[in-house]
Amino acid sequence: xxxxxxxxxxxxxxxxxxxxxxxxxxxxxxxxxxxxxxxxxxxxxxxxxxxxxxxxxxxxxxxxxxxxxxxxxxxxxxxxxxxxxxxxxxxxxxxxxxxxxxxxxxxxxxxxxxxxxxxxxxxxxxxxxxxxxxxxxxxxxxxxxxxxxxxxxxxxxxxxxxxxxxxxxx
Length: 170
Prior knowledge:
The protein is of the alpha+beta class. It has two domains: 9-17 and 76-169, PH-domain like (Roll); 22-72. Helices cover 38% and strands 28% of the residues. The protein has four helices and eight strands. The strands form two sheets. It has a four-stranded antiparallel β-sheet, covered by helices on one side. Strands 5-7-8-6 form a four-stranded mixed β-sheet, with helices on one face. Strand 7 (138-143) and strand 8 (148-152) form a beta hairpin.
């Protein structure tokens, strides 16, 4: 068995994020509890023969429960090596997305204050593909073929040092 370790690239930076908007999860939980209460009340004391209330309340409760589950399963994994940036936003991506560093035309670190994020300054309708669980904090990448990516990060200082090191070597 012949292994070529020289072809493997050295990992410079690694980060894994999960959804941390617990206030949204609590709000969805309260909404789900309210509709479950209405469902139980309708089942115990039916007002009509059509069961529309029961179906509506059960459907909204189920959809809200799936929403909570989805938010809890959201993960963004980012890796930076000497040769490429790899990221995967689960459950959206079934496999890792890769951007080769020699294909990067521009890369910059974006820092946005919490107040600015809540004012909507981070909303973009352009052609940028955004993958973030940390608002508009992370790296903005433009490739040589014109594709634009924004990959979120919570460790901006560490990411900035890693990007500088990787781009020097590329």
